[in-house]
Amino acid sequence: MDLNVSVIKEEDDSKEFSALTSIAYSPSEKHIVYVVRDDQTLLMYDAKSAEKLPAEINVGVHISSFSWFPIGNNATNIFACVCSDGTLRFIKSNGTLEKKVKAHRGAAICIKWNYDGSSLVTSGEDGDVKIWSRNGNLRAKLAEFSEAVYALCWGEKDMNESIVIAHGNKLCIVGTQSKGGTTEWDGLPKDRGIILAVDWNRINGLIVAGGEDCIFRIFYSTGVLLHTSSALGNALTSLSWRPCGTSFLVGSYDTICLCDSNGLIQCQKCVRVGSIMEMVWNTDGMQVACAGAGGSIVLSNLVGQRYHGGDFTVTVVDHSLINICNCESLDNEDSIRELEFHRGTIVCLALSLNRLVVCTSSQCYIYNVQTMGPPASFDLRCNVSLVIASPQYFAICSLTAGVKIYSMEGRHVSTLRFPLRSDLLTKDNLSLSSVTVALIDQTNKKVIHLFDTLTGKRVDGEMGEIKHDSEIRILALSQWRGINQEDRQLVFLDCKKELYIFPVIAGSRSGVQGSRKMLLQKIGSQIDTFAWYMDEKADILATISGSRYTVWYNPGVIYYDKELFFLAKESRDLPEGSKNSSILTFRGSTMDIKTIDGVVMKVATSTYPTILYELISSSRWEKAAHLCRLIECPKLWAACAGLALQYEELETLETALCALMEVEKVQYIKKVRNMKCIERRNVELMLYKKCDPEQAISILLQAKPPLIYRAIKVNIRLHCWEKALELAVKSAKSANESFVCVVLWYRQKFLDAQMKTIAEDDSQNFRTYFERFPSIDEQYVRSLKKTARAQENR
Questions:
Q1: Alpha carbons 126 and 24: distance in angstroms, whole number
Q2: Three-state DSSP class for 663?
Q3: Using CB atoms within 10 A as the burial measure, which of 165, 570, 571, 697 is most buried?
Q4: Neighbours of 327 (CB within 10 A)
């Protein structure tokens, strides 16, 4: 990433100019920047043309800091400010004073609105931090310190609204509610000066702070140090996170630095405007405006972002120009193509396989990057904050219109019908497939909501909401359509670095049935990042833990057979220096991995799993088994066995298990294949796949005629003795009362194995029926069993 910097200076160089103390974008006119000058003047600049507007407003007081009402509120022509006389003022954009309140003793220094515009916080030289209503009424004195508070910021901790406060060399997080609590730690070492700037990103939850020691530090909200930079040469006077949380800016004397979320400096610009007093991003996070102490402002456009997708890489060259590079092309002339947009500036884009979606400030364009024909396009009537893409659909997120789903032809498909804050959505907490949309609840990060892609409605029943014990950081849906065209897997990573998988939609043949708690399976621990195979050709998952990567050939088999799941994987070490890397793309037999130092490297994986999925997707099971015989790899055989089990291809399953030397499983599958009764065969497969026993038993009871003996026998095999006895007693009214004798006969054998007598039976029901049937004829029971089996085979 890089910054395209332009400095706006006054035309009259002979005149001495006052410092700029605060800066903000207008919420109503997105390209207008308001700046407060130290001579009590409010200035306006056009960010598009990078020119100063002629209008100047004299506010009649020295403003230390000001802030507009947050975007989305109605009062967009009023801003709140704190002044050198300790007052809090509400002023209209034309300079008219609406209200003035005495807020602090001495000068007031900082003011910040919370995200919904219901409260604002101020601080001053007196060390007080106060919460105010949007009408200027004092709500509470949040904190009181012995030194001046030079920086503060709103954030969220443990799902409670909180404020991080910088006082002296310490950072303190104070909850605005009574149950919020207080956390304090050293933001700077002792005797290294004070903290001058702090910012807290609500997307990634990280806090960045810097001050007089010329070093910035990144902290978790718990106070744990994540990163410490090297000294930058001058005191750090301002810090600002990009709204999406992927990067932040550092401002000091004559210098602006762009850093990624890990603290790695991406670029450093010398601007020669004095100390950077304040920096603010625009709503789409593509431009930043800075106020300089020398009287000039700096406008910087974010460029150089790279988007990876399959064989193509897209680079943002300028606010209206992108380059598309075909990494597989051998012709250098045709490998790079340029796209220029004349209507509006580039806001965000997404790349999925051979489709590129570009959203500008006025239109949305959909390109086929392979053919580069004329794009499909449509007008945008909202400010886009995020776009994500899947092979067939893409989603556009905005604060006013919510989340809208479109086809790759530009046709509107649906709108998610759920109250949400679209400005909090990122590619980590929102995922899209051709049938399902999944997102993490912003108010409770332990909950995932599932929606139907085509209708925008929430999935019915308990499967439409997934509740977890810990906060969820990242989620992603698989793209493989499967044989049934419906199978999808959801994988999510929680704050403990534990990776879980959940079947979102299961076809009738897949057999994934049961309670939500039973279906949620843990894949691994200490996982740093993960990625699904990009397109719909395979259901393969890649994970990175430390400096080692793992490719899971068939993650969905974990619901049926964990032995096959752990066998069907490929695990290798990454090169040195690859710890804490991230996966950019995973397609074909190649993974693009980005190290913490920003280096992108390609890692080769086996190509045979992808070929196996292509054969199975077209139901060529014999060819799939032939491929596994040719390769003679147990990992591939395990993947083939898992897929055969999922789609109940018993012949292929038996072949694969034979190759894996799973003798007991082979014998069981052989027995199931020889069963003549279809209901019994389906029930045995459901039990082998660990499905809900109640559903398996219901299949037997719904058969014509009902297979009561087999249902009783299933309960006995599962040691559900009370249910078996209850079923036998109920069937005695319409069938033969002797089924009770069968249950008692098996129960007696069970007690004999445990060396217990009938009187020592733990169940009162069984003791009662043993009194009614004191003697059980074994030959009679065997004849009943033989008769029941004969009825099953008809």
A1: 26
A2: helix
A3: 165
A4: 13
Calpha distance 562→119 (Å, rounded): 52
Q: Distance from CA of residue 668 to its chain's centroid?
A: 41
- SS3 annotation, 109-173: EEEEECCCCCEEEEEECCCEEEEEECCCCEEEEEEECCCCEEEEEEEEECCEEEEEEEECCEEEE
Rounded to 5 degrees, what are φ and ψ at 397?
A: -115, 135
* Cα–chain center distance at 371: 32
- The C-alpha atoms of residue 237 and residue 646 are separated, in whole angstroms, by 59
Q: What is the pLDDT of residues 432-485, one digit of tens each?
A: 988 889 998 888 888 899 998 888 888 876 677 888 888 899 999 988 877 665
Rounded alpha-carbon distances, angstroms, from residue 392 to 371, 410, 479, 704? 17, 11, 10, 44
Point out the least confidently predicted range of 47-51, 640-644, 687-691, 735-739. 735-739
Please name which of 413, 405, 445, 418 lies closest in space to residue 429, comparing C-alpha atoms. Answer: 445
Q: Count CB atoms within 10 A of the CB of residue 449.
A: 17
Residue 452 tokens read as 């139907």
And the tokens for 410?
């530009």
Lookup: tokens for 424: 């909090």
DSSP annotation string for 715-736: HHHTT-HHHHHHHHHHHTTTS-
Please check whether residue 352 is in contact with residue 586, taking contact to mean a CB–CB distance below 8 angstroms: no
For 156-193, the DSSP string reads: EETTEEEEEEEETTEEEEEESSTTS-EEEEESS-TTS-
**Residue 474 region, left (φ>0) first, then alpha (ψ -120 to 50), else beta?**
beta
- Residue 197, strand partner residues: 210
What's the start-to-end Cα distance of the chain, in Å? 72
Greatest pairwise CA separation for the chain in angstroms = 116
Closest among 110, 94, 111, 119 to 28, alpha carbons compared:
94
Q: How is residue 718 written in tokens?
A: 């599962």
Torsion angle of alpha carbons 354, 355, 360, 362, nearest 10°? 150
Joined tokens for residue 343: 């209507």
- Measured CA to CA, the distance from residue 31 to residue 36 in angstroms comes to 17
Whether 275 and 252 have beta carbons less than 8 Å apart is answered as: yes
Using DSSP bridges, classify how beta strands 119-124 and 600-604 pair: parallel, antiparallel or unpaired: unpaired
**757 burial type by CB count under 10 A (0-12 exposed, 13-18 middle, 19+ buried):** exposed
Backbone angles phi, psi at 747, to 5 degrees: -65, -40
Alpha-carbon distance values, 658 to 54, 629, 634 (Å): 83, 11, 11
CB 433 within 8 A of CB 454: no
CA distance 440 to 122: 32
Q: Please work out, in degrees rounded to the nearest 5, the angle formed at the alpha carbon of residue 493 by the alpha carbons of 492 and 494.
A: 120
pLDDT digits (tens, 9 = 90+) for 159-193: 678 899 999 889 999 888 765 578 889 888 888 88
- The 10 Å Cβ neighbour count of residue 110 is 23
CA–CA separation, 116 and 545 (whole Å)? 38
